[in-house]
């Protein structure tokens, strides 16, 4: 695999930001994003949106961070440290989304700064991570700012009403998502369990691109979507065009799924530390 260039000692590295929730179990959310950022060789920063109470069996509650504190974290980092790209994960409430959108517009996130929006709605156990009315706010405020949106098939159904069952409906969903304003829409195929491969479809309003990977039989896949987005946003921060960034993210998450491990009695995390065995 082609890796991202690593910074030399004393050199300021590429910086990225995740705007996401904390997973106390260390599998998903900002913990997985920061892990991938470090292993990909970029400096990771974070704006925490919510603190979840979570382990391998599920999410039993969350506490949202005040919107002005979320906005303050973004502004503090961008104005001093600077970022090459940003991604979102769990956003929790409509008030937090409005604050992120206002701050993004003020600071050029989604204009000058590449912006990946992962419309996280629920955990893999179906526990809600976004209030129902907040999804409409996310679509209205953040999709038009996004360079890339990366829903899974459950999120696609909630957003577009389309039940993806094959390649044709996956393309229909990509069209419907693109109509909501992002430059690129990626419909992740990992949840289409009847398919022999895990194929993601990327659409820019003109052409469809497919990213295919073997379907890996593991129940330890917690944080897979976050890890795909995190690796992709690292490549975007390095200046990759979106299709090349997605190709990097797809290979990264496929290797992380192959290296996944059990912790707890439920679903264990994907494991980006395969990267440690492959330096440089
Ligand atoms: O994988 C989506 C996700 C994002 N962020 C947080 C999560 C999860 C899934 O559990 O807990 C905080």
Please describe what this structure looks like.
- The protein contains eight helices and nine strands.
- With 280 residues, it is α/β, with parallel strands linked by helices.
- It has a single domain, classed as UDP-N-acetylmuramoyl-L-alanine:D-glutamate ligase (3-Layer(aba) Sandwich).
- Strands 3-2-1-4-5-6-7-8-9 form a nine-stranded mixed β-sheet, with helices on both faces.
- The longest helix has 17 residues.
- The chain is globular, with a radius of gyration of 17 Å.
- The chain starts with 14 loop residues before the first strand and ends in a 22-residue tail after the last helix.
- The mean pLDDT is 97.
- It binds 3-hydroxy-5-(hydroxymethyl)-2-methylisonicotinaldehyde.
- One of its GO terms (molecular function) is hydroxymethylpyrimidine kinase activity.
- Its EC number is 2.7.1.49, 2.7.4.7.
- It catalyses: 4-amino-2-methyl-5-(phosphooxymethyl)pyrimidine + ATP = 4-amino-2-methyl-5-(diphosphooxymethyl)pyrimidine + ADP; 4-amino-5-hydroxymethyl-2-methylpyrimidine + ATP = 4-amino-2-methyl-5-(phosphooxymethyl)pyrimidine + ADP + H(+).
- InterPro entries: HMP/HMP-P_kinase_dom, PM/HMP-P_kinase-1, Ribokinase-like.
């Amino acid at each position: 695999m082609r890796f991202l260039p690593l910074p030399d000692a004393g050199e300021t590295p590429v910086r990225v930001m995740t705007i996401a929730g904390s997973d106390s179990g260390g599998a998903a959310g900002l913990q997985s994003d920061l892990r991938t950022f470090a292993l990909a060789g970029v400096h990771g920063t974070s704006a925490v949106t919510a603190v979840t109470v979570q382990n391998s069996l599920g999410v039993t509650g969350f506490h949202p961070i005040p919107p002005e504190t979320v906005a303050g974290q973004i502004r503090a980092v961008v104005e001093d440290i600077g970022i090459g790209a940003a991604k979102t994960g769990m956003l929790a409430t409509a008030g937090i989304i409005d604050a992120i959108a206002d701050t993004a517009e003020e600071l050029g996130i989604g204009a000058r700064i590449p912006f990946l929006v992962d419309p996280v709605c629920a955990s893999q156990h179906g526990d809600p991570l976004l209030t129902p009315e907040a999804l409409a706010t996310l679509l209205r405020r953040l999709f038009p700012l996004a360079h890339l949106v990366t829903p899974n098939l459950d999120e696609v159904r909630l957003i577009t009403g389309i039940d993806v069952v094959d390649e044709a409906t996956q393309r229909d969903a990509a069209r419907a998502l693109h109509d909501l304003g992002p430059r690129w829409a990626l419909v992740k195929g990992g949840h289409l369990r009847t398919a022999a491969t895990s194929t993601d479809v990327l659409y820019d309003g003109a052409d469809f691109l497919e990213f295919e990977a073997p379907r890996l039989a593991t129940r330890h896949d917690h944080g897979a979507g976050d890890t795909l987005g995190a690796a992709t946003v690292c490549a975007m921060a390095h200046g990759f065009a979106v299709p090349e960034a997605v190709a990097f993210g797809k290979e990264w998450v496929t290797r992380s799924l192959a290296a996944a491990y059990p912790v707890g009695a439920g679903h264990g995390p994907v494991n980006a530390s395969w990267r440690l065995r492959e330096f440089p």
